[in-house]
Amino acid sequence: MGVRKRLSAEKKKEAQAHIAFAKLTNVPSSPRKMRLVADMVRGKEVFRALGILKFSNKEAAARLEKLLRSAVANWEAKNEQKAESGQLYISTIFVNPAPMLKRLRTAPQGRGYRIRKRSNHVTVVVDTIDNSKNTEA
Prior knowledge:
It contains five helices and five strands, in the order αβαααββββα. The protein is α+β, with helices and mostly antiparallel strands.
């Protein structure tokens, strides 16, 4: 690895050291359905978002709730303290499409209809509310 590339990699690694995040890959639902749920909790305080997800009747909400709990646990492990109410918020959440499974379904007159089984990747980044105010000021 070249010097420039190594320095760039070290900078990225240093930036990641202070960020608590969690990723969920290859979720077998369409990205559009997952984005509907992600938009409900984007920018909200963590424990309020967990309440929203718990009482949402969408299937994607249960998966996102588990992912958010994982992100909070990652934050607690990095900072060696328990998360308190009003301390953490969801700073970033995004849903990317994952590879699609393509299948054929039999159709009339010898034809075949294509079925696209979509999946997605979700990333949640959790940060403290104090840090967001310090960076904006």
